Fold this protein.
Amino acid sequence: MNGNKRSKVPDWADPDDAPDLSGPEWVERLAAVKARPGRPKAAAAKVSTTIRLDPDILDHFRAGGEGWQSRINAALRAVIGQK
């Protein structure tokens, strides 16, 4: 540090550090970007619920990686004859 134990500014610069985005050119560019927080909206919103499944069933779907909940949903739709 630069002699002051409380200083949070190092006296060296890391070339891999992110650039300073507080300059006017960046403030203008960032303000122009529309923020879209959250997940994309589906035509019909999903309902959060709790369901008890046998461990081997859950292991089977989770073994396929991300999207395991959607695959369970698709399997249940197939059982009731819906796409």
Summary: The CA atoms of residues 8 and 42 lie 45 Å apart. The helical segments are 24-31, 55-62, 68-79. The longest helix spans residues 68-79. The chain is about 35% helix and 0% strand.
